[in-house]
Amino acid sequence: QLVESGGGSVQPVGALTLSCAHSAFTSDTYSSGWFREAPGKRREAVSCLDSSGHRPIYVESVEGRFTISRDNAKNIVYLAMNTLNPEDTGIYYCAAGGHNYCSVHISEYDDWGQGTQVTVSA
């Protein structure tokens, strides 16, 4: 089971760091991903990391502002979010996939967290 934390409310250009704990993240066969669901929109990929914790992929809208990282010793994946804007508002989900490559496709992830709310507003 994945457990996310770190969501909250922040003003524009503020920052938040999300955390996701999962026992699978100690394994070199599970990749990790962050997705988000904005109000009234479909769930979309934000970023992913391969099972070794390298070669991240970011969607264009967060490139240069968000950083995904992984601490296998602690079973935790992080998403550091900087220069947040209102378009980043949504429920953020962590996911674990039973493959060693980074994927932005929802269908390739097996386990999902319950989501954590991120709200960016003045």
Keywords:
7-stranded mixed beta sheet; 11 strands; 4-stranded antiparallel beta sheet; 0% helix; mainly beta; 122 residues
Count of helical stretches = 0
Sketch the topology as an H/E string, one letter per element: EEEEEEEEEEE
Poorly predicted runs of 5 or more residues: none
pLDDT averaged over residues = 93
Count of extended strands: 11
Strand content: 35-45%
What percentage of residues falls in helices of 4 or more residues? Answer: under 10%
Largest sheet: 7 strands, mixed
The helix/strand class is mainly beta
Report how far the terminal alpha carbons are from each other: 34 Å
**Rg, alpha carbons:** 13 Å
- Net shape: globular
Structure description:
It is a single chain. With 122 residues, this protein is mostly beta strands. It has strands at residues 3-5, 8-10, 16-21, 31-37, 44-49, 57-58, 66-71, 76-81, 90-97, 111-112, 116-120. The strands form 2 sheets. Strands 2, 4, 5, 6, 9, 10 and 11 form a 7-stranded mixed beta sheet that branches. A 4-stranded antiparallel beta sheet has the order 1-3-8-7, with no helix packed on it. A hairpin with a 7-residue loop joins β5 and β6 (57-58). The model has no long low-confidence stretch (mean pLDDT 93).
